[in-house]
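Fill in residues.
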């Protein structure tokens, strides 16, 4: 298995990249809400959703075989 598909942004698939972007943006929003003194009770569920999407994308990426992309027709 190529574990770099989990940690290297260049090797991530779209699910992983969207989830990672979502986590970063949620963290920034969380910090902003903290400084504004606002609290959203269910905000932490966003992290769970992003984590599930990232795990799903990671499984898909780790199971993907690059040789499957090359279909040669004669």
């Amino acid at each position: 298995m190529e574990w770099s598909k989990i940690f290297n942004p260049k090797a991530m698939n779209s699910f992983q990249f969207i989830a990672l972007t979502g986590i970063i943006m949620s963290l920034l929003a969380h910090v902003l809400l903290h400084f504004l003194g606002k609290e959203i009770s269910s905000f932490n569920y966003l992290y769970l959703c992003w984590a599930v999407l990232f795990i799903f994308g990671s499984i898909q990426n780790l199971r993907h075989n690059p040789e499957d992309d090359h279909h040669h027709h004669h």
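Residues 13-62 form one domain.
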